[in-house]
Amino acid sequence: MRNFKNVTVIEHPLISRDLSIVRNKYTDTIGFRKAISRIATILAYHSLKKLPLKKKSIETPIKKTTGYELDTEVIVVPILRAGLSLVDAIINYIPDAKIGHLGMYRDEKTHEPVDYYSNLPSGIDRSLVLLVDPMLATGGSADDSITFLKKKGAGNIRFISVISAPEGLQRVTQNHPDVPVITASIDEKLNENAFIVPGLGDAGDRFFGTQ
Ligand code: PRP
């Protein structure tokens, strides 16, 4: 496996098991959704590791003591559609996180992303922005999304994907060396149709049952 700067591959037995479930073409929609959600929970946990904290006074039933609360706002931005599959896992940890949406699909011939929708909450300049998409293939969608978020003022972005192609990681880390990438797998390569090999097919179609 190649090493990329600022890319963290999360290794865990449950991820190995669940990646095998989502890669398996015989896994049905229910199985796919459940496994993606479990992977997302582990990726979310790791991507939230270095959140700043501030102290606050709390009272246990026994005495006053020092507690902590998060010292940053969090905005989750799924790249539509497939990115929606990773949102719940983050919201479980940070129930007051705001959610922005970026709509993008990949042109089947050029393989370049086409954006069709965006809706971002305010406060992006002072928030940790978690951009999420289960697939990083050519990297076009992630690259364009990060550029868009930066233009809107985001200065603290992390990108979470389930499986990543080396080609996509090369593009994103080269164009955005300041953006940490958290992924569950670096796959072998892209094929001639820019699909990730071995990959898992089309995450959006499999998650939403539209294949
Ligand atoms: C897939 C995937 C990423 C993108 C990755 O979306 O979910 O958004 O392609 O490819 P890239 O790295 O080469 O840009 P798709 O176009 O299938 O849309 P969908 O999420 O609506 O299924």
What would a concise description of this structure say?
With 211 residues, the protein is of the alpha/beta class. The chain has a single domain, classed as Rossmann fold (3-Layer(aba) Sandwich), CATH 3.40.50.
CATH topology: Rossmann fold
Kindly name the structural category.
alpha/beta
Largest sheet: 9 strands, mixed
Global outline: globular
Going by CATH, the architecture would be 3-Layer(aba) Sandwich
Helicity level: 25-40%
Estimate what percentage of residues fall within beta strands. 25-35%
- Write down the Rg: 18 Å
Total strand count, please?
A: 13
| Hetero ligands | 1-O-pyrophosphono-5-O-phosphono-alpha-D-ribofuranose
Query: Helix and strand string, N-terminal first?
Result: EHHEEEHEEEEEHEHEEEH
Number of helices in the DSSP assignment:
6
Could you say how many structural domains there are in total? 1
Mean pLDDT: 96
